[in-house]
Design a protein that fits this description.
Shape of chain B: globular
Largest sheet of chain A: 6 strands, mixed
Order of helices and strands of chain A: EEEHEEHEEHHHEHEHEHEEHH
Largest interface: A-B, 30 and 23 residues
Strand content of chain B: 35-45%
Distance between the termini of chain A: 36 Å
Number of helices of chain A: 10
Radius of gyration of chain B: 21 Å
Order of helices and strands of chain B: HHHHEEEHEEEEEEEEEEEEEEEEEHHH
Oligomer: heterodimer
Number of domains of chain B: 1
Structural class of chain B: alpha/beta
């Protein structure tokens, strides 16, 4: 589904990603872990199409299309979803209107009929249950005054509404208490199927107790330096990242 | 250097001015002859070189005479969805047959010299007030008796149809009695293309406990030059709210002055300027807190494209006696082009020591992070921009209480944000 080959990216001339290779197939969950500053969030942003990042080398294909050629909105319409680490507060834009615009633009792109108000609301009701999000929250402006946990739940709710093929969760666990973590993870797990895939970007292992990955990759200095199964995450939790840093740093000297 | 002399400006206008209000007129004339049009370096007009603009665009300072206008033209000029009462000004002159007002309101030509013209908007404050007061051709007095609530808004429709580069000088005196409630919508239409100069003065006297809303929409001709002076005295327990929406014009200067004269009075000023091309809009506001326990709220927002220019100058004056004043002011701008300019200046003079005053101004670009967020959800970039800009502007439109007028303005704003920007 997703194939990343030798991806290099920099921001304002500073290289951050230095040759990422990753294959993701339908039905899989991949965790990207790594110490602060290793390039995890950059990878998520580059895949979603954030403009500040310049891809200097390499290629990314998503369902046989050159992902890097597409505008951010077209990536979303093709089925890529980024759950933001810091969801943006947008005063004056109602959550419901925003979502309806988004859902219908995505549907239009996919050749589906636009949802009328009634159908849209019933879809919303159904998906709201997934993340136990309160209707009151959605009658407010988008993310405005939401708590950290509410923002993250809203991200997963949007994900449920847009039904992506590839979901990228960028540090979705940050700022979540244990209950919110369970609710958010539960939502993600219910959305999993053998037709879609998930990339979980996280610093800590704790999220992976809830969203169990098939593969774990460790990112360091802009490269994937180690890949394994969920046991790798447990090992990292126990030993920290230093042993990997040492391994890599001594090998490159 | 401006070569337009005060005599050039005033003399032809005086020729067609009637002889009523002799004392007020001659006092204003003396002031205007001494002050003249604002000089290049005049502090209050330094970003708005209106004298130079007038010199360039206005061929002669002839007072425009009432034109031939038909009821069809009026019907065509009233915005869609409007429900309310109508006052038609034909090149500044009230047209009684085309107007329709409820019986409770008394309206007349401004002839009765018992009306203290120039006591609220004083000619010494601004040269354009002095110019208008010395030479206005005709005016209008509107009075809403006490305890009268006019539920539907009154549309003051100025039809400005002049021959190349003439001057229109609307002059309106409004009195709202104690406990009266009334809403005005002030709109000018310009059926013919071409430059014209509109120099409007509106004086509003609000009684105790009165509620006056004054909405002004500026979307007339691209070549119109407009100076508007609106000033109001707000008495005890009374409330005045102005909403000014500026969408087009060549050069526009709005002076809005609120005098809070009684305790528990409230003055609100909201403005939105959505500019493109070379349009220049200058909002100068002034709220004078003279007594304790009064409140003022102010929010002006601007979105500027192309090489348009916006000026905001907000004065809050809190006199020594005006303890327990609450005064809030905010001005936010979004620049959509490198050639667009905003000059914003909050000016607070506070002489009392127990007050709550705040002010803030921002000028920036569209929030890129918010834009990306919307795009990342599949929303087209142009539409996402429109959505964000509309959300920004909507905060001002929310202060319009008349639903029909609000819908009209919302439509105009959305149309502008969807197409040009």
């Amino acid at each position: 589904m997703l194939s990343i080959k030798n991806l290099h990216a920099s921001v304002e001339g500073t290289p951050i990603l230095r040759g990422i290779n990753l294959e993701v197939k339908a039905g899989e969950v991949h965790a990207i872990m790594g110490p602060n500053g290793s390039g995890k969030s950059t990878l998520a942003s580059v895949l979603a199409g954030r403009e500040e990042y310049e891809v200097t080398e390499g290629e990314v294909t998503f369902q046989n299309k050159d992902l890097l050629e597409l505008a951010p909105e077209d990536r979303a319409r093709e089925g890529v979803f980024l759950a933001f680490q810091y969801p943006v507060e947008i005063p004056g834009v109602s959550s419901t209107n925003f979502l309806r615009t988004a859902v219908n633009q995505v549907r239009e792109y996919r050749g589906l009929e636009a949802l009328d108000a009634v159908k849209f609301l019933s879809l919303m009701k159904e998906k709201m249950k997934l993340v136990e999000i309160d209707q009151k929250l959605l009658s407010r402006a988008l993310n405005e005054g939401f708590s950290g946990g509410e923002k993250k739940r809203n991200e997963i709710f949007q994900m449920a509404m847009l039904e992506p093929t590839l979901s990228i969760l960028d540090e979705t666990d940050s700022g979540l208490d244990i209950d919110a973590l369970r609710i958010v993870s539960n939502g993600v797990n219910q959305l999993k199927s053998d037709k879609n895939a998930t990339i979980v970007v996280t610093h800590y292992q704790r999220l992976l107790d809830y969203i169990v990955p098939d593969y774990v990759h460790v990112l360091y200095k802009g490269r994937i330096v180690k890949s394994g199964t969920k046991e790798l995450a447990l090992e990292l939790e126990e030993k920290g990242y230093d042993w990997i840093k040492e391994e890599v740093d001594s090998a490159t000297v | 250097m401006s070569t337009l002399t005060t005599q050039d400006t005033l003399s032809p206008l005086l020729e067609t001015a009637p002889s009523n209000f002799a004392t007020a007129r001659s006092a204003a004339k003396a002031i205007f002859l001494q002050e003249g049009l604002p000089a290049v370096k005049a502090e209050e007009y330094k970003y708005t070189q209106i004298a130079r603009k007038l010199e360039k665009e206005i061929s002669s300072f002839q007072q425009a005479q009432p034109a031939d206008i038909t009821s069809e033209l009026i019907q065509k000029s009233i915005f869609e969805g409007f429900e309310g009462h109508l006052i038609v000004l034909n090149n500044g002159k009230w047209d009684a047959t085309l107007s329709s007002l409820p019986e409770e309101i008394s309206i007349s030509e401004l002839e009765d010299s018992s009306i203290p013209v120039g006591t609220i908007a004083k000619p010494e404050k601004d040269p354009f007030v002095a110019l208008n007061q010395s030479s206005f051709a005709s005016g209008l007095a509107i009075s809403v008796p006490k305890k009268t609530q006019i539920e539907q808004p009154i549309l003051i429709l100025s039809v400005n149809q002049t021959n190349g580069g003439q001057v229109v000088q609307p002059r309106i005196w409004i009195e709202a009695g104690d406990f009266a409630e009334v809403t005005f919508i002030d709109q000018a239409v310009q059926p013919l293309d071409g430059a014209l100069f509109s120099n409007q003065v509106v004086e509003i006297k609000g009684g105790h406990n009165s509620k006056v809303h004054y909405y002004k929409i500026q979307n007339e001709g691209k070549e119109s030059i407009e100076v508007s002076n609106i000033e109001t005295d707000i008495q005890k327990d009374a409330q005045f709210t102005a909403v000014t929406i500026s969408l087009s014009g060549d050069m526009v200067r709005n002076n809005l002055n609120l005098n809070l004269l009684g305790s528990n009075s409230e003055g609100n000023m909201y403005g939105l300027y959505l500019l493109n091309g070379k349009t220049h809009v200058d909002n100068h506001t002034n709220v004078d807190h003279t007594i304790p326990h009064a409140e003022s709220n102010e929010l002006y927002k601007g979105i500027l494209a192309d090489s348009s220019r916006g000026v905001f100058n907000g004065k809050i004056f809190v006199r020594q006696d005006a303890q327990k004043t609450n005064a809030f002011q905010q001005n936010n701008n979004i620049l959509l082009s490198e050639d667009a300019t905003v000059n914003t200046k909050p000016q607070l003079e506070i002489w009392a020591d127990d007050v709550k005053c705040s002010h803030g101004c921002t000028t920036g670009q569209l929030d890129e992070e918010a834009l990306f967020y919307l795009q990342a959800r599949g929303i087209d970039k142009l539409q996402a921009k429109g959505l964000l800009l509309y959300a920004f502007a909507g905060e001002v439109l929310d202060h319009i209480e008349d639903e029909n007028f609000k819908n009209y303005c919302t439509g105009l704003v959305q149309q502008r944000l969807g197409s040009k920007f």
